[in-house]
Design a protein that fits this description.
By secondary structure, the protein is an alpha+beta fold. The protein has nine helices and ten strands. The strands form two sheets. Strands 2, 5, 6, 7, 8, 9 and 10 form a seven-stranded mixed β-sheet that branches. The chain has a three-stranded antiparallel β-sheet with strand order 1-4-3, with no helix packed on it.
Length: 312
């Protein structure tokens, strides 16, 4: 409340136009910009083949796209901001929401997963987190994912009570009253919402941003296609490609920052080998260092107390 949230920290050092933008365009859908990224699949295929030979691990396009987005969010933190009630916040974590089908048939159930990352993970670590989450939720006896469980509870309510509950949730969200546990299961409170349309043989599309929640980026990946391309020497060849399409909330940062951030994303898609190594933890100084030392001291004290209790 009063500008404090469980999932973000209020940004104070904003330029005048950046602060005013959310008042000019108070709704997220008002401020959407659309961007298309053509991905050279031949570069991805080459990397996937080399990694399979080197390590025996087979990476999918989805995992590489996810890893590229996560690394961009970490290196370009303004893209991981969001706006609620006309206030700009820096998200406290990196989260990816993605919808999957438990089976590719008309009666298949759509399951929404939400995963958390530091942004420093390697591609292999991201793959494991994603595969573990999928495995837990697609098997017949799987425990219902928190996101689906929460939605299922709301859907059981009568229509008038469902509307009232949503009104309460919107009010609580706008005033920072929603608890972290509820925010953690909400797919609409995430850094990036992704959809792999390639898996259902559709081309990429520009998806709307949700006014509920605080998702700043929605990205879709489409099916593979073949198109003629021309190099600088005038030589033409057929290239295997796919498109990624992004809907972006333009209020969180200016056009130049977004442009440079999308160039970082393109770099990782052209050179996915850069994603195979984790990034080192940043060196902490000042308040951040003191906060970590205090947390480590508290944790050590708690563990010592627990060990002493078990020893008795």
């Amino acid at each position: 409340m009063f500008g404090k949230r469980a999932d973000g920290v209020k940004v104070k050092d904003l330029q005048i136009i950046d602060k005013a933008m959310s008042y000019f365009m108070p709704m997220r859908i008002d401020a959407v910009n659309l961007y298309e990224q053509v991905v050279n699949c031949e570069l991805l295929d080459k990397f996937i083949l080399e990694e399979r030979k080197r390590s025996g691990i087979h990476y999918s396009y989805t995992e590489i796209m996810m890893a590229a987005c996560i690394r961009m969010l970490y290196e370009r933190p303004k893209t991981n901001r969001f706006i609620t009630n006309c206030v700009v916040y820096q998200r406290k974590y990196i989260a990816i929401s993605i919808s999957i089908m438990n089976k590719l048939t008309d009666d298949g159930e759509e399951i929404t997963l939400k995963m958390f990352f530091t942004g420093r993970e390697s591609l292999a670590e991201i793959k494991k987190i994603f595969e573990d989450e999928v495995a837990k939720n697609v098997k017949p006896d799987a425990e219902v994912h928190g996101t689906t469980k929460t939605a299922g509870f709301l859907c059981k309510l009568p229509s008038w009570l469902f509307k009232f509950a949503m009104a309460c949730l919107r009010f609580g969200d706008n005033h920072g009253l929603l608890p972290r546990k509820l925010l953690d299961v909400s797919p609409f409170h995430t850094s990036v919402y992704m959809a792999d349309l390639k898996s259902i043989h559709l081309d990429a599309l520009f998806h709307h941003l949700y006014n509920f929640g605080n998702t700043t980026i929605f990205g879709t990946m489409g099916k593979v296609y073949y198109t003629p391309v021309c190099d600088r020497e005038g030589n033409t060849k057929v290239q295997k490609s796919l498109k990624m399409k992004f809907s972006l909330d333009e209020r969180v940062c200016n056009g130049l920052y977004y442009s440079n951030s999308l160039k970082v994303l393109a770099k990782y898609l052209e050179e996915p080998e850069l994603l195979t190594h984790p990034l080192p933890e940043p060196e902490l100084t000042g308040k951040a260092l003191k906060k970590k030392q205090k947390a480590d001291k508290k944790k050590a004290k708690k563990e010592a107390k627990k060990a002493k209790k078990e020893g008795k």
